[in-house]
Design a protein that fits this description.
six-stranded mixed β-sheet; 7 helices; Metallo-beta-lactamase, Chain A
């Protein structure tokens, strides 16, 4: 697996191109992502969204039209692509496939899991490909996603953190913002964030 990363837009949202063999997946194409993606893909299969926030889906529709590929989005966040709930002027897009919580999908011969960790958004998911996690805005290096936005939910975030704390396997984590890390490294911080979310409820 080869992974290319380019931060996009005001919030420096990481857009990823994942190349497996001769095929590519595009993850979270934010504002201004189209030019970079087009310059770096040869055989793209799909656009994958970790969640529905505008800075992760801004270029969905433009890339879908130019590359003739489908959009996969967590089911509970699909409304955000169409309705621009944060009034950012986000170009509307529509999920071609609404992925259910913890669903495993196959895109050609590539196995992809959408691990369900709601809280930051209703459908917030980690996209697992092989042993790599694309964590969106659930886990960052030494931090987690905010749970005080519109459509966020602190109780769900607490449940998600308690769930991830029980995972034994290590994974390389490529987050929605900032530098890569590992699940093993982030386990040092999970108890702190559990207490922070708990205290906010």
């Amino acid at each position: 697996m080869e992974i290319k990363i380019q931060p996009m837009g005001q919030y420096q949202t990481n857009c990823y191109i994942v190349r497996i063999g001769e095929k590519e997946l595009i993850i979270d194409p934010g504002k201004g992502a189209t030019k970079w993606v087009l310059e770096n893909v040869k055989n793209p299969l799909a656009i994958l969204n970790t969640h529905g926030h505008f800075d992760h889906v801004w270029s969905n529709q433009e890339l879908k039209e130019k590359l003739k590929i489908p959009i996969y989005t967590p089911k509970d966040d699909a409304f955000m692509l169409e309705s621009d709930p944060f009034s950012q002027g986000t170009p509307p897009s529509k999920a071609d496939i609404c992925v259910h919580p913890d669903e495993t999908i196959m895109i050609e011969d590539i196995k992809i899991k959408f691990l369900y960790f709601p809280g930051h958004t209703p459908g917030c998911s980690v996209i697992e490909i092989e042993d790599v996690w694309f964590s969106g805005d659930f886990l960052f290096r030494s931090s987690i996603g905010r749970w005080d936005f519109r459509y966020s939910n602190g109780k769900s975030m607490l449940e998600s953190l308690n769930r991830v704390a029980k995972i034994k396997e290590n994974h390389t984590i490529y987050p929605g913002h900032g530098e890569a890390t590992t699940l093993k490294e982030e386990m040092r911080y999970i108890p702190y964030w559990i207490s922070q979310v708990q205290n906010s409820l």
